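ok new one. same drill as before - C-alpha cells go in, u give me an amino acid for every spot. 398 of them this time. try not to just spam alanines like last time pls lmao
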C-alpha cells in the first residue's frame, strides 16, 4: 500500500447482496479505492458485467466451469480469471490487496477470511460464519499479524461504534456491562407457532426491513441469524454469551447498543441500509459518504422494543447454548443450520424442522476443542453428514 494513493480492495462474494452494496460504496470514492479482486462462485453473467465495469486485476470463481466461462467472456479485458481455494487465499494475501471484504456466504468463506487475517490485511468481516466456526483461530490470527477486523454485520458494526475504540482496532471493554443486540424479529414475529412451523420459503425470504441473500433471510426468520450474531459478538468483543442480551426492535433503526456500568446506554442509529456499516469499515477511522438516506426522526414513527421469544424461535436458544458450550459446538450448530436451510429452501423439509435438524445434530456429535482449522473442517463435515441424515429421516416422515 505504501506509495499508493488508493487502497486496493478485494470483494469476495462480489455478486451477492453485500458485494453489490460494497461496490456501490466503492464507486462513490474512486480517489480512495480501487477494486483489484472480485470473487464469486457460479454467477458468470453478473461477474462478466462487474469485470467490465470495475476492471479488477483478478477475478476468481470457486466453480471451475464458471471460471472457464468467465475467462472466455472477459478474454478482451485485462482481468486474469482464476479458480481453486488455494488460489483465492493467495490472491487475498497478495500485495495487490490492502482491504478484503469477506462476503462469501456460509462456511465457504472460512479459508479466505482466515487467509486475509493471517496476512495482516484490513478485514471487513461480513461472513459471520467464519467467526462462528473458528472464532478463536481467526481472532488469534489477526492479533498475531496485526490485521484489523472491522465488523460489517450491522449489529456488530453498531457495537464497534458504541465502544470506546479511540481509533484502535480492538476496542476497550472498560466499564462495559453488556452488549445489547437488536433483532428485527423477522417476518414471523407476530405469527403463532403452528403458522411459523409450516411457513413457505417465499414467506421466510420476505424480510420486512432488509434486502438480503436467501440464506441469511431464512436465518433472520428463524432468529438463527441473531444466534449466530451472538456467537460472533462474543468472539469479536471477547464477551461471554451471558453478557450479550437480545432485544427485538421491529423498526431496525437502532442497530445495537452497549450498556455501561454507570447506567449509560450508547446506541447507533441509522436507516436499515448495509452501505452504512460498509462505508464505515472501508473508511475507518474516518467517515465517508455511503449514499444512504439520512434518518428522518420526524417521520420514522415510534421505536419499539420487546423480548425475543425462544419458544416460537428455538434456533436462538440453540445458538446461545452452543456459545455457552464452547468448543466445536457452534461449528456443529452452523453446519447443521446450513444443511437444514438448504433443505427448507428446496422444499424437502418444513420451516419448523430447521431447529429439529440443528438440535438433533448437536445431540448426536461430541464436542471437541477447535485447536486447528483441520479440526474445525472435520467437525463441519461430520455435522453436515449428520444433518443430511436428519433431513432424509424427516423428509421420509420417519
Ligand atoms: P448472497 O447470497 O447475496 O451472496 C453470496 C455471495 O457468495 C455471492 O457472491 C456468491 O457467488 C458467493 N458464493 C457463494 N458460495 C460460494 C463459494 N462456495 N465460493 C465462493 N463464493 C461463493 O449473500 P449475502 O451477501 O446476503 O451474505 C454474504 C455474507 O454476509 C453472509 O455470511 C451473511 O451472513 C453476511 N451478512 C449479510 C448481510 C446482508 O445484509 N446481506 C448482513 C450481515 C451479514 P455466486 O453469486 O456466484 O453464487
Amino acid at each position: 500500500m505504501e506509495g499508493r494513493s488508493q487502497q486496493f480492495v478485494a470483494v469476495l462474494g462480489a455478486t451477492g447482496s453485500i458485494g453489490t452494496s460494497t461496490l456501490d460504496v466503492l464507486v462513490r470514492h474512486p480517489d480512495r479505492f480501487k477494486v483489484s479482486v472480485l470473487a464469486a462462485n457460479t454467477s458468470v453473467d453478473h461477474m462478466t458485467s462487474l469485470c467490465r465495469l470495475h476492471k479488477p486485476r483478478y477475478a476468481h470463481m470457486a466453480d471451475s466451469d464458471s471460471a472457464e466461462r468467465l475467462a472466455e467472456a472477459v478474454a478482451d479485458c485485462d482481468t486474469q480469471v482464476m479458480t481453486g481455494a488455494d488460489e483465492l487465499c493467495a490472491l487475498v494475501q497478495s500485495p495487490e490487496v490492502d482491504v478484503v471484504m469477506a462476503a462469501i456466504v456460509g462456511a465457504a468463506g472460512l479459508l479466505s477470511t482466515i487467509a486475509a487475517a493471517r496476512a495482516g490485511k484490513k478485514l471487513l468481516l461480513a461472513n459471520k460464519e467464519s467467526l462462528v466456526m473458528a472464532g478463536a483461530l481467526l481472532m488469534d490470527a489477526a492479533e498475531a499479524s496485526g490485521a484489523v477486523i472491522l465488523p460489517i454485520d450491522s449489529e456488530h458494526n453498531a457495537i464497534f461504534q458504541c465502544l470506546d475504540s479511540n481509533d484502535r482496532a480492538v476496542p476497550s471493554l472498560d466499564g462495559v456491562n453488556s452488549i445489547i443486540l437488536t433483532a428485527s424479529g423477522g417476518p414471523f414475529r407476530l405469527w403463532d407457532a403452528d403458522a411459523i412451523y409450516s411457513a413457505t420459503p417465499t414467506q421466510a425470504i420476505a424480510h420486512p426491513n432488509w434486502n438480503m441473500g436467501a440464506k441469511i433471510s431464512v436465518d433472520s426468520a428463524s432468529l438463527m441469524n441473531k444466534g449466530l450474531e451472538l456467537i460472533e459478538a462474543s468472539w469479536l468483543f471477547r464477551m461471554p454469551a451471558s453478557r450479550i442480551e437480545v432485544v427485538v426492535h421491529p423498526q431496525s433503526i437502532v442497530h445495537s447498543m452497549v450498556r455501561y456500568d454507570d447506567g449509560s446506554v450508547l446506541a447507533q442509529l441509522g436507516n436499515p441500509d448495509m452501505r452504512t456499516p460498509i462505508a464505515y469499515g472501508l473508511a475507518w477511522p474516518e467517515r465517508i459518504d455511503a449514499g444512504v438516506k439520512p434518518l428522518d426522526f420526524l417521520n420514522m414513527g415510534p421505536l419499539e422494543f420487546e423480548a425475543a421469544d425462544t419458544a416460537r424461535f428455538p434456533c436462538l436458544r440453540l445458538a446461545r447454548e452452543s456459545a455457552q458450550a464452547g468448543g466445536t459446538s457452534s461449528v456443529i450448530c452452523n453446519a447443521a443450520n446450513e444443511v437444514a436451510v438448504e433443505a427448507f429452501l428446496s422444499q424437502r423439509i418444513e420451516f419448523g424442522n430447521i431447529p429439529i435438524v440443528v438440535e438433533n445434530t448437536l445431540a448426536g456429535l461430541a464436542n471437541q476443542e477447535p485447536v486447528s482449522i483441520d479440526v474445525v473442517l472435520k467437525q463441519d463435515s461430520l455435522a453436515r453428514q449428520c444433518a443430511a441424515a436428519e433431513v432424509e429421516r424427516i423428509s421420509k416422515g420417519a
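The domain at 7-152 is CATH 3.40.50.720 (Rossmann fold). and btw The longest helix spans residues 373-395.
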